[in-house]
Amino acid sequence: MRSFSISLFNTVPFVCLLLSVLVSPCTGLFHSNQETQHDVNGNLMDQHDGNLLEVGGVWYWFGMGYTDCKLEKGWIPPLDCPGIYRKFGTGCGFRTDHLLNLYTSTDLENWEPAGDAFPIDGRPEGIYFRPKVVFNEMTSKFVLWINYLPPARTPLAAYPNATYLVAQSDTAEGPFEVVNDQPGLMYEGAGDATLAVDKDTGEAFIAYDAWSNGHRISVERLTPDYLKSTGEETNSGFLSEKKHEAPLLFQRDDTWYLMYGHTCCFCRFGSGLQVYTAKSPLGPWTDEKTDVNQRVKLSGKHVIPAQANYVFEVDGKFIYTGDLWTSAPDGLKSHDVQYWGELKFNDEGKVQVMEFVDELRL
User: In 10 A of CB 48, how many CB atoms?
Assistant: First the structure.
């Protein structure tokens, strides 16, 4: 049985524990958007720009670990991202020793550390970020797509040659092994990406932007083993203007949703969330002409000052996750807070404008 701390701030776990003794087991979810999460050992969690995946009643939370990386501030744009101009592998967020951290849970609240799922000594030297992992039921493999910058003079010089490394493992804990370093996407110079699996067909799709197209979002279908894109054959066409990234792609009932924001390198003000809808990931897509993470007037800051990571579903609810960059109280990027909030939909299935919440309870 797990131990729970009891406080006026967090009484739900205690109530569930009491009910489980007197009546029957119950589950809940509590996530604070005011402080960095702790694992079951009491350690601050180092978990960023990744995704959550549920398989067999276990939740797996994959994310980049920035370890002892200190927050940095530059004098030229992007101000919160000076590491792109520095010697390759030295800037915060652009080091070659960052980890693919994995935590596991059965209740989305109590997280067990499961180590580095993509060990440094088993992967090519380079800079890694924004990992996404899905499970392929046909092959029984866990498949990782992760952004990769090969060595160059600076990260900025490496970006035109950026790609995704595709790796797989028999278990979520890994170690993931690279099986494809040329995934065959239509556009080169890989930008941010997300993966989504069709609940009905098992087909997988990638939504991504690229340096070669000025950071414009499009969607492509993956091959049945999820290890490669089908490329131009199934490209949706551009779904954003230039200078957009961090796409979210998910399925709700018979509708697909694509959301994205403006380019935002570790930005403290967050980025918006434009919304598109379709009956298929390849379209045709409808622009809902709505930014559901709006700017606060005059400040430049968004209501939720986060950059989007992923949307996961639990008990029919859709949870938005994002990084509150530069929020770490101790000045370590590894301890920047993860924001979780429930997406709301009206009767027509349209995503409602989001509001900041101090905590998420389900």
Answer: 26
Question: 112: closest CA among 40, 64, 60?
Answer: 40
Region label for 270, one of left (φ > 0), alpha (ψ between -120 and 50) or beta (otherwise): left
One-letter identity of residue 347: D
At residue 209, φ and ψ (nearest 5 deg) are -120, 170
Query: Looking at residues 291-317, what average pLDDT do you find?
Result: 94
Closest CA to 133 of 93, 175, 186, 95: 175
Q: At 169, is the secondary structure helix, strand, or coil? A: strand
Q: How far does Cα 42 stand from its chain's mean position?
A: 23
Extents of the domains making up the chain: 1-32, 37-361
Q: Which of 92, 106, 107 is nearest to 48 (CA)?
A: 92
Of 109, 63, 15, nearest to 314 by C-alpha is 109
User: Which phi and psi angles does 264 have, rounded to 5°?
Assistant: -160, 85
Residue 186: alpha-carbon gap to chain centroid: 22
Whole-model pTM: value is 0.91
- pLDDT category at 8 given cuts 50, 70, 90 is very low
pLDDT for residue 9 is more than 50: no
Residues found in the chain: 362
- Please state which of the four CATH numbers 2.115.10.20, 2.40.170.20, 2.60.120.10, 3.30.750.44 is assigned to the domain occupying 37-361: 2.115.10.20
